[in-house]
Design goal:
It is globular, with a radius of gyration of 21 Å. The chain starts with 13 loop residues before the first helix and ends in a 13-residue tail after the last helix. The longest helix is centred in the last third of the chain and has 20 residues. It is 45% helix and 13% strand. By secondary structure, the chain is an alpha/beta fold. Bound molecules: flavin mononucleotide.
C-alpha cells in the first residue's frame, strides 16, 4: 500500500531550483564537540531508521551522522519499556549517532537525555516536528511549536543535564500564520544548543507541497550555530542547490534514503568530481539482499513487515519490479521473501548475461 510519504513530492519548480545550485555540500561540520564528516545527516524516520537501516546506510558510505527514530522520553524513563529500549539500541559502528527524544516535561526530558548520554550516544536531539496526532495531543513533537516559552524550559533543562551536544529538529511553525522558525532557532542558540535542523514545512502541511528552503536561509542568517537543512532533497544536485540557496552547514535526507541509499555517497562523489555513479542492477540486487539478510540476522521484530515495505522502495524503477513486489506481498515469512528477491534478480542477471530482457518484462515468480 502506498503511503502519503512514500517518496518526496515531485513539485513543479523543483528541477529548476536544482539547476541553480553550485555550492558543494561541506566536507565536515562541527556540532559542539562532535565532528560530522561529511556534513550529511540521515533524517530520523519512525519505522525506518532502526539499527539495521542505520548501519546499512553507514556501511554504504558518505553519511556523516545517523539518528534514531523518535523515542518517547517518558518511555526511556520507564526502564521496562521494551519499545524505547529497542529504539535506542545501537552498535559501535554507528558512531557518531544521535538519539532523538520527544516529550513535553522539561524534567522528564532532562532525565531521559542524561540516560541517553549514559548509553553512549554522541548527541541528543529534541523532536519538535512530528505532526502525528498521537504525539501532538500530549504536547510533544510539533504540538510545542505554539508554545515557545515551554520549548525554552525544555532547552534549559536538557542543556543543564548533559555534556554531549544537544540539537533540535523542528518544523517552521504550526501553520503559515504562525511561522516561528527564526525565533525558535534564536532561543535554541541562546540556550546553548549546538545546532538546529529545520524541516522547512509547517505542521499543517504534513508532507504536502514543496519545502520552503527560504525558511532555512532565514534561520541561517539569524544564528551562528550550524543549521542543518531538510526537505525534498532527492539528488546530489538538490543537496548542492539547498546549500547554495540557503547557506546551510549540512543537509539532512529522509525519504530518498530508502529508495536510493547511495544518495550520501553520491553527494560526496559529486562534491569532488562534479559527477556521480548510478547503481547498476547488480548493485541494487546486492543492496536488497544485504539489507534483508541483516534484518533476518538481527531477528528484528516486524522484520517481515519491514521487508515488504522496503521491497516497494528498493525496487523503485527496477524493470519488472511490480511482479516482484506482488510476489513479495504474497510471501509468508522473511526467508521466503529473501528467496523471491534472489530468484528475481538471479533470473534477470542471468538473462542480461545471455538473452537480454525487455525492460518491461515481468518475471513469473511462482
Ligand atoms: C516514515 C517517516 C517517519 C518519520 N519519522 C520522524 C521521526 O521519528 N522524527 C523526526 O524528527 N522526523 C521524522 N520524519 C520526518 C523526516 O525526518 C524529515 O524531516 C522529512 O521526511 C522531510 O525530509 P525529506 O524530504 O528528506 O524526506 C519522518 C518522516 C517519514 C517519511
Amino acid at each position: 500500500m502506498r503511503k502519503y510519504w512514500d517518496s518526496p513530492v515531485k513539485a513543479a519548480g523543483q528541477g529548476a531550483r536544482a539547476t541553480q545550485g553550485s555550492s558543494a555540500v561541506p566536507t565536515q561540520v562541527r556540532i559542539g564537540g562532535a565532528e560530522i564528516a561529511p556534513a550529511t545527516v540521515l533524517a530520523p524516520m519512525a519505522g525506518v531508521t532502526d539499527t539495521v537501516f542505520r548501519r546499512f546506510i553507514r556501511n554504504l558510505g558518505g553519511c556523516g551522522l545517523i539518528m534514531t527514530e523518535f523515542t518517547s522520553a517518558d518511555g526511556v524513563l520507564r526502564a521496562k519499556d521494551k519499545k524505547a529500549q529497542r529504539y535506542l539500541h545501537f552498535y559501535e559502528d554507528e558512531h557518531p549517532i544521535s538519539a532523538q527524544l520527544f516529550g513535553s516535561d522539561p524534567q522528564v526530558m532532562a532525565e531521559a537525555s542524561r540516560m541517553v548520554e549514559g548509553f553512549g550516544f554522541d548527541l541528543v536531539d529534541l523532536n519538535l516536528g512530528c505532526p502525528a496526532k498521537k504525539v501532538v495531543k500530549c504536547n510533544g513533537g510539533s504540538g510545542l511549536l505554539r508554545d515557545l516559552p515551554a520549548i525554552q524550559r525544555i532547552f534549559e533543562a536538557v542543556r543543564a543535564a548533559v555534556k554531549i551536544p544537544f540539537t533540535v529538529k523542528f518544523r517552521a511553525g504550526w501553520d503559515e500564520q504562525e511561522i516561528v522558525c527564526v525565533e525558535l532557532a534564536k532561543i535554541a542558540e541562546d540556550c546553548g544548543l549546538c545546532a538546529v535542523a529545520l524541516h522547512a514545512r509547517t505542521r499543517e502541511q504534513g508532507y504536502s507541497g514543496q519545502a520552503r528552503w527560504d525558511w532555512i536561509a532565514a534561520v541561517k542568517q539569524a544564528v551562528k550555530i550550524p543549521v542543518i537543512g531538510n526537505g525534498d532533497i532527492r539528488s546530489p544536485e538538490d543537496a548542492c542547490a539547498m546549500v547554495s540557496q540557503t547557506g546551510c552547514d549540512a543537509v539532512m535526507i529522509g525519504r530518498t534514503a530508502p529508495s536510493n541509499p547511495w544518495i550520501f555517497r553520491q553527494i560526496a562523489e559529486y562534491a569532488v568530481t562534479g559527477r556521480y555513479d548510478e547503481p547498476a542492477e547488480e548493485d541494487r540486487y546486492q543492496m536488497i539482499r544485504t539489507y534483508f539478510q541483516m534484518l533476518i540476522e538481527e531477528e528484528m521484530l516486524g522484520a517481515e513487515g519491514k521487508m515488504k515495505q522496503f521491497a516497494s522502495w528498493f525496487t523503485h524503477g527496477v524493470p519488472g519490479g511490480a511482479g516482484l513486489r506482488k510476489a513479495i506481498y504474497e510471501s509468508k515469512g522473511a526467508p521466503e521473501i529473501l528467496s523471491r528477491v534472489e530468484e528475481f534478480f538471479e533470473a534477470r542477471l542471468c538473462a542480461a548475461g545471455g538473452l537480454a530482457l525487455q525492460t518491461d518484462d515481468v518475471i513469473p515468480l511462482g
